[in-house]
Protein 1
Amino acid sequence: MELPMRHSITAVQSSARPGLCAIASLAMLALAGCQTSTSNILAPIDKAQGSSENIGSLTSVIQSNPRDPEGYNVRGSAYGKAGRYKEALKDFDAALQINPNFYQAYANRALIYRFMGEDARAVADYNRAIQINPQYDVAYIGRGNVYRQAGRLDEAFNDFNRAIQLDTTDGRAYHNRGLIYQARGEHKQAIEDFATAISLQSNAPEPYNGRGVSYAALGDYDNAFDDFNTAINLDGNVAESWANQALVYEHRGDKARAAKSYARAAQLDPKYKPAKDGLERTRG
């Protein structure tokens, strides 16, 4: 249910503030890591998962075995994927009443709290999940994302490191650690982490955008361009990918193609400032 991350090349901004993206000017790129959110434990909205048929089926399972916490946990996840957060919370609460040591339910409830903007409760639930099972990589990654979005990059870095030390196969750990390396200006390390994330989640556009931003920061526009194009091919509805591609066109002096890509980015996200600013620079 994680929301997509932003990795974009924009006007120079401070990387110390949470939610700010990687940046560039035409004369010289000075990039810093960014993302507004994270990748997927659950999809943001999944109508199939939240359909009345699916919910009804899961409800039947619960009715046939009302003392099984897993039934509530699964239905809670389905509610969460459908954006029905209050109902999801009720199910995770029910699962935890039956089994107070159900660490997966704590982590799932924490994710719902995150999307409700209740970060303190989210951290408390992630802490509880880790206390019950110190080997649970998902909880470290989830808590790390809360810390990262709050600008607590050192704590976030430690959590992503811990998940990686646990031999996680979840590409988000490497991706998010790469974002922190990027924010620190350590682009070679960031590129390595994004590459690992890609090897684990090759169909996700976010790590390609992230790696492309770091390539651009090092002046490697050809590899950056390849990564931005791959991100677009994987998902053509991400405004940042088009804006990143546009800035490489702009750097090459191809204003016509740059304007076309900026226009596509602005069409996808009319409020996305880098796209609007880029259009103003390249139109005509």
Protein 2
Amino acid sequence: MSDIHVRVASWQKDIADLRRIRETVFIAEQAVPPELEWDSDDANAVHFLAFEGDYAIGTARLLPDGHIGRVAVLKDWRGLKVGDALLRAVIAEAERQGLKAQRLSAQVHATPFYEKHGFRIVSDEFLEAGIPHVDMLRESA
């Protein structure tokens, strides 16, 4: 792994990379129905792309209300701190925007990852797209 970096992405200019990653992770690997993956929030979200060199390998989005979502890293790059870099960038942008509370719905297996970044579970387990999730909250000082 070399030269991992994260930048804010443009939904219009970077849509091919954003779609490729999300379709691979959510639709192909996790069997999320396409109609649940794509929503009207994409147009108003701040999107992020993680790259190794110039190849996009991960994505996330931040909604205007502080909700973080669509965090996805391609399989070959998982476990290499790409998700950490993405989440740090999203949290930094949320705080820059003055969003003191960041929320997300985490797949249950990923809760330790989010807890490491200051999130705590604030709901009972529920199913979203057939996958067990919990709501999580992070509050900035």
Protein 3
Amino acid sequence: MEYIALFFTGMVATTLGTLAGGGGLISLPVMLLLGIPIHSAIGANKVSNTVSAFSSFLYLLKHGQISFKESFWVIPISVIGGISGGIIASILSSKYLFILAIFLLMFAFISSFFGKDQFQGNQKLTINKISLPGLYSIGIYDGLFGPGQGTLQLYLFGYLKISYLRAIAYSRLATFSSCFGAAATYITTGHIIWSYTICLLLGSLSGAQVGVRIAEKLKPKIIKPLLRVVTVALIFQIIVNQLSGN
């Protein structure tokens, strides 16, 4: 029964994660409720996110939403950002990470009410004074803390006037990049419980494909309200986890 629960958890969490980020809102608490050790739960999420994120990116790449030529530079920036975040995390206390997470998510939430952009732009992602430090900073955040990384990326791409489907493709590529190293670490340190991880992975692959197909049909005006709901839920979860000592 727990294997079936993990499959559907992966499907639902990755569908949400593809559309607006925040899939960890669902997957991690469910895995902990099932009695899976915290490191094994995080590792399973990293492994499944690596594969499912790349499958979403490939789908949008094959359907001509983006080209690899315009997006490949996202990979090293996200990887370097994640490494930088991991180094900084070893220095900062958890209290400061908590404050940073809340600040960034609240800033993104408030900023979403300014401007009329609704992910209807036709811009391509290029290296400029906003995109480069923006992606690098979110990579650092992912290495530091993590929850809401995909949501923050979508806010950034919306600000850059990139269409919703392009934004998802870039976000999935960045997620793949940042999770790849983390997944390798959890595998090599022996924290992966493969029976659970494979069930979550199969569900995540299904959710990734469901998510991109739903995204193709969503009206742009729905995207920002969806992001705001996910952002508020992320802030609430982070505060609850901090107060409970998790």
Protein 4
Amino acid sequence: MEAFKGQNILSFIKELPDDEACKAYLAKIKWQDGFKCMKCGHTKGCEKSGYRYHCYGCNHVESATANTLFHKVKFGLQKAFCVVFEMSTSSKSVSSIQMGKRFNIRQGTAWFFMQKVRKAMKSSQQYPLSELVHVDEFTVGGKEEGKQGRSYDSKKKKAVIAVELSAKHQIKRVYVRAIDDYSAKSLTPIFEEHISTTAKIVTDKWRGYSPLKKEYNIEQKFSNNGKNYIL
């Protein structure tokens, strides 16, 4: 079975119709490059019933869910898979209350599992944005009355966003980072952590991006009277 791709939940459920199918899927993904015991590191063993592996080195029996998000999930693997599917494909945040109602899970249980998923989804920084990337800085809370341009004395939170777009200008990935100010020093980390030097980057004319042109392919354009020019 190949990795599931797409956002059609009906196809997803058809592909993984029950807990056993989910366990089989996990086993295939986990051991597709061969078995390695998580206890002793031994690579010799045999498969057992229930999608488990018996290590010949230390006799440890490892389940397909061990050392994964789904280990000891008490509300069923298929439900857990569906929660991950919802969180990874939805463009809007789903609360633990909504998730609990949707899959008949206690709100507290849904919240705890969703926290584990969010932690696992945190960027490894191994796959930087590499295509068309738009970068812009903003304040959380919107524009302040009576103030034009960037406000340095504002108590509102400042942030910078990097959006990777497909050839059809559809959003692929997004990273947001809080910043102290709009200086090149504050803007640099999101570039270093999440954007490839081979990417085509578009920003506004803010001078804080100018020093980054030495390392990155940046095209600076005038913004439309302060409006978002990205999409």
